[in-house]
Amino acid sequence: MIIPSSYQIKEGELKGKVILVTGANRGFGLAMTMDLSKAGATVIMLGRDLGSLEYAYDAVIDKGFQEPILYPLDIEGATPENYQSLQDDIFNQFEKLDGLIHNAAILGTMMPVDQYDIKLWYSTLQINLNGPFMLTQFLIPLLKKSDDARILFLSAEQGREAKAYWGAYSLSKFATESLGQILSDELENTSNIRVNSINPGAVRTQMREQAYPAEDPKINKEAKEILNAYLYLMSDKSIGISGDSIDAQ
């Protein structure tokens, strides 16, 4: 399924919505936070570095958009107790959650499996897969309190077609695609939660430059050029879409 980037969300369309974005302190996550806040949503900005979260917060406020909430948390080292505290904090302030966007991820390294550093393998899967699993599990009770909630996993082409040297990153993206489909099937008849994964394609990001150092970044789209597809999936217009692997275009 392809969602065109030409979709335009109306100002204030997400007013009253509470959406948590991981890795919201920089790059693609910050760009999403800006657009969601512009549309009226209260964004819970989750990231491991408080300093960059505060910088991102100022960027949103300076534009006059909806004030976000900062939540410093290191997904790699987070425990079930940390996620329980997050659940409690969101409930105490909002009593619900309308959206969860799993943006945070690391590339790991480009290396053959038989040479892959074991600690980096574990770290990549912790940030890209195990952390999102635990975060989702603890936040589902809050998402069920919403009249119309969304869970969105950021995917990649390497999570749909395995290629040499992509190692832990590719494996983690295959797994999150599967996790999204499992959740969609499990929640279909018991809640108002829609679950999808979306592949942004070739976007001008720091991770893309790390993976393709010889590539001219100017040939790729900027993050802001495809963000409308993400906004569409957070809006009421996507109410019938769940369990899909979507491409932004």
Structure, briefly:
The protein has a single domain (2-248), classed as NAD(P)-binding Rossmann-like Domain (Rossmann fold), CATH 3.40.50.
List the main descriptive attributes of the protein structure presented here.
alpha/beta; Rossmann fold; globular
Secondary structure: elements and pairs:
Elements (H helix, E strand, L loop, with lengths): L1 E2 L14 E5 L4 H12 L3 E6 L2 H13 L6 E4 L7 H15 L4 E4 L15 H26 L5 E6 L12 H21 L5 E7 L6 H6 L15 H8 L10 E4 L1
Parallel strand pairs: 1-8, 2-3, 2-5, 3-4, 5-6, 6-7, 7-8
Helix pairs in contact: 3-4, 4-5
Structure write-up:
This protein has helices at residues 27-38, 50-62, 80-94, 118-143, 167-187, 206-211, 227-234, and strands at 2-3, 18-22, 42-47, 69-72, 99-102, 149-154, 193-199, 245-248. It is α/β, with parallel strands linked by helices. It has one domain: 3-Layer(aba) Sandwich (Rossmann fold), CATH 3.40.50. It has an eight-stranded parallel beta sheet, with helices on both faces. The protein is globular and about 50 Å long.
